[in-house]
Specification:
With 382 residues, the protein is α/β, with parallel strands linked by helices. The protein is 41% helix and 19% strand. Helix 9 crosses helix 10. The two termini are 23 Å apart.
Length: 382
């Protein structure tokens, strides 16, 4: 019987330490996890009973009895992971120990609907597995979608930028295609999980924002994603903001953050100025080239994101605000958001607040999906 005092989080941390080689004995786990030796003994006994780890040989003595060496049981196989956007999908393979083995982008049109999009993703998975992991079993699939996803059922709920997807049971569709365990998550939440894993267990409470074509967010507190009552938390993009110009939003309302601070908003505004931009990537390239009109608009978008986040920072008092997504690569966007947060938040809230760009980068969501897929497939490596 499982020890109820041993949390899933503690189990995951122990497996991470053993997978990375940071811990090879009970004593190492006690020191790294900062828990009682009796708790570690119970955890190790549970993992041995489950067949997740092996105990073999002895290590070097530090004055007492020589410790038994702990290691993870080796298992073959990979996880296929993909983050979908409006026009592109990032597709990759994740190993059992959490490494991203391969990643590439494929063109899609999210408006083409689930069948055509999932056909394209399935073809990409097959191609990448053949090239990068021939003969390796597919153990699970993880997919992140740019809209509200009810977790863990994987059903979409009113995605504004995904015509034809509302109510789609993406998880059931993918399970039927691949015949393996499947997890479907919102893209910002998947990226927040990947960011938290990349930063390590001492990250603290973190507000993660994915600023790309759209804007999404997620709160990670105590190492856990906050999902809300229906799993739909984190919808920053459709919050009303001042100085929005009452622009129409994809959700049908006016004045949402998406209409002034997202990549899609910048594309629209720059088109109205007569600039030849069609994608968020075009905006980024023009900003990097220091086009004055683009830089001014990007700075203003960053400021309005900062305004939207300031209320959350005052309310939640996080340790960190992390901005990911394509726009986080622009220093002017980051600096503008950071400046407004310092200006609008209480000094007590920003005194030790970290405000920075993602360290996991464009593969944050893939890292998070790999973690989720391993959990759903009940494969004990991370």
């Amino acid at each position: 019987m499982s020890d109820p005092s041993i949390s899933a989080s503690l189990r995951e941390q122990a497996l991470n330490l053993l997978a990375s080689g940071e811990a090879t004995s009970r004593a190492d786990l006690v020191e790294a996890l900062r828990v009682a030796p009796s708790t570690v003994s119970g955890l190790v006994r549970r993992l041995l009973d489950e067949g997740v780890i092996l105990e073999e040989g002895v290590g070097r003595s530090t004055g007492g009895r020589r410790p038994r060496i702990l290691r993870l049981r080796e298992t073959d196989g990979v996880f296929a992971v993909s983050e979908l956007g409006g026009r592109h999908a990032r597709v990759g393979l994740s190993s059992l120990d959490g490494r991203l083995l391969a990643a590439e982008e494929v063109a899609i049109d999210i408006a083409a609907g689930p069948r055509k999009v999932f056909d394209a993703i399935a073809q990409a998975f097959t191609r990448i597995r053949a090239a990068e992991a021939p003969g390796q079993a597919l153990l699970g699939v993880g997919v992140a979608l740019p809209g509200p996803v009810r977790f863990p059922s994987g059903r979409l709920v009113g995605p504004a930028r995904m015509p034809g997807w509302s109510g789609v049971d993406a998880q059931a569709d993918l399970k039927e295609r691949f015949d393996v365990p499947v997890v479907v998550e919102n893209d910002a939440k998947a990226a927040a999980i990947g960011e938290h894993i990349t930063r390590g267990r001492d990250t603290g409470d973190m507000i993660y924002v994915k600023a790309g074509t759209g804007i999404g967010g997620c709160l990670v507190s105590g190492g856990q994603v906050y999902r809300g009552s229906r799993g739909l938390s984190g919808d920053l993009t459709h919050g009303r903001v001042a100085d929005s110009g009452e622009r129409h939003c994809s959700c049908g309302r006016r004045g949402c953050l998406e209409t002034v601070a997202s990549g899609a908003a910048l594309v629209q505004q720059l088109k109205e100025q007569g600039l030849p931009v069609t994608t968020t990537r075009d905006v980024i390239a023009a900003a990097v080239d220091a086009d004055p009109t683009v830089v001014t608009m990007v700075r203003r978008a960053g400021e309005l994101l900062g305004v939207a986040l300031s209320g959350l920072v005052n309310f939640l008092n996080p340790d960190a605000v992390v901005i990911g997504g394509a726009l986080s690569s622009l220093d002017v966007y980051m600096a503008a958001a950071r400046g407004v947060l310092y200006e609008c938040c209480l000094p007590s809230m920003t005194q030790s607040l970290s405000i920075e760009a993602s360290v996991a980068g464009p593969d944050a969501a893939l890292a998070g999906l790999g973690h989720l897929a391993r959990t759903v497939a009940d494969v004990p490596l991370s």
